[in-house]
Amino acid sequence: MNMSATADGMLGRAHRLMRMLLAVALLAFALLVMVQVAAFAREAAPAADDPMLEERLMTLAGDLRCLVCQNQTLAESNAELAADLRNEIREQMRRGASDQDVIDYLVARYGDFVLYRPPLKATTLLLWSGPAILLLIGIMLMMRSLARRRGQMAEAPLTEAERARAHALLGADGGAERS
Amino acid sequence: MIPELGHFSLILALSIALAQGIFPLLGVARGNGAWMRMGSTAALGQFLFIAIAFGALTYAFIIKDFSVLYVASNSNSALPLQYRIVGVWGGHEGALLLWVLILAGWTVAITRFSRHLPGEFVARVLGVMGLLSVGFLAFMLFTSNPFTRLIPAPPDGRDLNPLLQDFGMVLHPPMLYMGYVGFSVAFAFAIAALLGGRLDAAWARWSRPWTTLAWVFLTLGVALGSLWAYYELGWGGWWFWDPVENASFIPWLVGTALIHSLAVTERRGAFKGWTVLLAIFTFSLSLLGMFLVRSGVLTSVHAFATDPARGIFVLVFLGIVVGGALLLFASRAHRIGLGGSFDPVSRESMLLLNNVMLAVAAGSVLLGTLYPLVLDALELGKISVGRPYFEVVFIPLMAPAMFLIGVGPMAHWKKASLPDLATRLRWAFAVGLVTALLVPFAMGRWSTPVSLGMLLAAWIVASSVAGLLERLRQSRASEGLLAKLGANSRSYYGMLLAHIGVAVFIAGATLVKGYETEKDVRMGIGDSVEVGGYSFQLERLSDVSGPNYIASRGEISVTRNGRAVTKMYPEKRTYREKKNPMTEAAIDWGFVRDLYVSLGEQLNPTTWLVRVYHKPFVELIWVGWLLMALGGLLAVFDRRYRITVGVKHRAPSSAPRLLEAGTAAAG
Asked: What is the mean pLDDT of residues B105-117?
C-alpha cells in the first residue's frame, strides 16, 4: 500500500514507545529496590522463639482445618482449641516430628476431615482426577466440533447466505472491528 | 396490619406473575397481540406489588415490630437504624424478597429498553421471566414467608448476625443478587430465541448488553464479598474457597465464558448452540448457588438457613428450569446453524479455547465444592476440600486462559497466523519477561510464583497496549491522536480495561501471597513488634461500648524508621444478644501496602494475642476487579446497542427508531 511509509513510521514509533515503557518500568523498579531494601534491612528479630519452626508450623497449619470453626484454617483461627492444637504441633515439631508425622497424628485423632488437602484414596480418586478428566473432555469436544465444523462447512455452502442474512439483519456494522 | 398488607401484596404479585407467565406465551402461540402485550403491564404490576411488600417489611424493621417472626429473628431494639434497614435482607426470607424484587426490576427494565425488539420475542422473554418469578414467589409464600406473625410478640428480637452488621451488607448482597438474577435475563433471551427457532446474530446482539450488565453486577458482588471477608472476618485473607464464595464464583466463571462466546455469536454468527447452553448454565449455576446457600446443605458463615422443605423446593425448581431448558435445547439443536466459518487458528478458535478453559475451571471448582457433600451424603466419610486443592487445580487451568488474553484480541477473525502473532507480540512478551525478572529482585527476595504471576500480568498489559498501538497505527482517521483514539468503540476500550483489570488482580494476588509478612505475638502494654519494616507498639487497652455490643479496644501506634505513621484500633466485640465474640480488625489502607492488626484471645487483663500483617499491594486485587467491572460497564454503553439497527423485522411494531437497549443500567 502507498501508506506503508507512514505505517512504518508508526511501527517505529510504537516500538520506541514500547522501549520507553520498558525504560520507565526499569527506573520504577530500581526506585522500588532502594525503598524496599531500606525497609527490609531494618526488620527486627521476630517475637517467636524459633522463627524457622514457627514458619513451618504456620505453613502446615494453613492446610489444616480448625475443627470448631465454620470454615477456617488452623493457622487463621483465633479459637482456643486452634491455639491449643498449634501448641501441640509446635511441641511435636520441637521434638523432631516431621510434617507427615504431625499429619498422621492429627488424622488418627480427627480423621481426614482435618485435612484441607484431601488424601488420595479410593473415595477421593474422582475428586483428584476430575479436573484432568474435564479438561480432556473439553479439549476433545472442542477438537471434534472444529473437525465436524470443517466437514460440514465443506458440504454446506448455505451458511454463507445465512451469514449474509445475519449481516443484513444487523445492518451496517460498527466499523471499529476488523474482520 | 402493615405486614398483612405486605403478605397480601406478595399473593397479588404471584397471581400477576402467573398471568405474565401464561398469557404472553399463549398470545404468541395463538397470534393474539393483546395477550402478547400483556407482559409489560403485568411486569409493572408485579414490580409494584413486590415493592409494596418490600416496603412493608422494611417498615416492620424500622418500627421494630417483633410480632413479625422474621423481624424478631433478625433485629433487636438496640440495633441501629442503618442495620435495621439492611437487616431486611439479613436472613433467608428477606433475602428472597430482595431477590424477587430485583427479578421484577430486571423485567420492568426489559419492557422499558426492548421496545425496538420484535413483539413476539419480547412476549416470550417476559413470559419466561414471569414463570421464573412464579417459582420464586411460590417458594417464598409456601416455605419462607417473611411476614409470618409471632404471637405473642417477644419483648425483644434476637438481633442480626453480628458478621452482617457492617457497611458491606448494604452493597454486597444487592450487587450479588443483581448479578445472579441478571443472568435470568440472558436465560430468558436464550429460551425465547429457542422457542422462536430464531437463533441468530441479532439475538446475540440483543442479549449482549443485558448479559454484560449482569456480569458487571456479579463481578462487583464477588469483589465486594471478598473485600468484606478481608476486613470483617479478621483472618487477613481475601479469598477462602468457602463453598458460599464458590457458589458465587462458579456462575461468574461461566458468565465470563458466556460474554466471550456471545461476542463470537454476535460478530460471526458462530457458537450459537454453545452460547445458548452457556446462558442456560450460567443461570442454572446461579440457582444452584442459591440452593447451596439457602438449603443449609453447607454449614458456613454465610449459610444461615436450615430447613429441608426449602432445599427440596429449590432442587425441584432447579430441575424444572435446567431440565426444561435442556429439553427445549435438544429439540431445537438440529435447527441451529453453524454460522461463519473460521480456521483452527483464528480469534474464534482462541475464544473457544478460552471458553473450554473457563468451563473446565468452573467445573473443577464445582466438583471440589460438591464432592464433600456427596461423599457425606453417601456416608463414605467426611473430608474437607479447601485452599490447597483449589489452588492446585485452579491456577494451572487459569494460567493458560490468562496467557490467551494477550493473544486472542490480537488474532484476526476467521483466520490468523501464529508467526504473524508472534511478530506482533514479541515486544509485549519481552516486557513480560523483564518484569518477571525484575519484580522479585525489586521486592528483595526471589519467588517463582510471583515471577510467573508478574510475567502474566505484564504480558496482558503490554499486549493490550500493543493491540491499541496497532489500531492507532492502522486507523483511517489520519489527523490527531484523539481522533484516532475516538475511532475505536467503547466496547473495545471496555475489553482492554477488563483485561488490564485481570492483570492488576494477578499482580496483587501474587505479590501479597509472595511477600506478605505476618506475626503472631503476645502483646502487653508497651510491647512492640516489627513487621514489614513497621513497628507496632501497644499503647493502651480500653473497654468501649457500642449500641448493641461491648468491646475491648487496643490502641496501637505504628512507626516507621522512628517516624509516626498512624494509630490503629483493633477491637474484640461481644454482642449482647448473640454472644459469639467478633474480631474487628484495624486496617491502615494504602496503595502499596495494607497494615492489618487483629486481636486474638485475651491472655490476662493486660495481655492479648495479637496478629499483625504487612500486606504489600493487596489492594490491587480489588482494584483489578473494579477495573473488570468498569470495563464491562463501558462495553454495555457501546454505541452499537443504542443506535438503530435499521432493519424491519416481521413484527410491525419493530420499525427502525432510536434504541436505548444498552442503557438498562438505570433500571
From this structure: 90
Tally C-beta pairs within 8 A across A and B. Answer: 234
Q: How many residues does chain B have?
A: 667
Which chain B residues touch A134 with a CB distance below 8 Å? 360, 363-364, 367
Contact B431 A21 (CB under 8 A): yes
Nearest chain B alpha carbon to A144: B344
Beta carbons of B452 and B432 less than 8 angstroms apart: no
Query: From the list B240, B435, B647, which residue is nearest A71 (CB)?
Result: B240
What is the distance between the alpha carbons of residues B126 and B130, in angstroms, rounded to a whole number?
Answer: 6
ipTM of the complex: 0.84
Give CA–CA dist B151/B157, Å, rounded: 13
Residues B261 and B307: beta-carbon distance below 8 Å: no
Cross-chain CB nearest to A46 (options B338, B438, B519): B519
Query: Which amino acid does the sequence have at A38?
Result: A
**DSSP secondary structure string for all residues of B510-543:** HHHHHH-EEEEEEEETT-EEEETTEEEEEEEEEE
* pLDDT score for B509: 94
For every residue of B79-136, DSSP letters joined together read S-HHHHHHGGGSSHHHHHHHHHHHHHHHHHHHHHH-TTS-HHHHHHHHHHHHHHHHHH
Helix (H) or strand (E) holding B582: strand B581-584
One-letter amino acid of B458? A
Judge: B202–A169 Cβ closer than 8 Å, yes or no: yes
> If you average pLDDT over every residue of chain A, what do you get?
73
pLDDT value of position B664: 32
- Are the Cβ atoms of B360 and A165 closer than 8 angstroms? no
Closest Cα partner for B255 from B234, B237, B275, B238? Answer: B275
Comparing C-alpha atoms, which of B356, B358, B665, B365 is closest to residue B502? B358
Q: Which chain B positions have a beta carbon within 8 Å of A78's beta carbon?
A: 234, 583, 598, 600-601, 609, 611
Cβ count near A140 (within 10 Å): 11
Q: Which residues from A are below 8 Å from B235, CB to CB?
A: 72, 76-77
Q: How many CA atoms lie within 13 A of B130 on its CB side?
A: 31
Q: Across all residues in chain B, what is the average pLDDT?
A: 87
Residues in chain B with CB shorter than 8 Å from the CB of A126 are 367, 371
B218-248 residue pLDDT tens = 999 999 999 998 988 777 788 888 888 899 9
Q: Are B430 and B459 in contact (CB under 8 A)?
A: no
DSSP codes of every residue in B71-87: HHHH--TTS-HHHHHHG
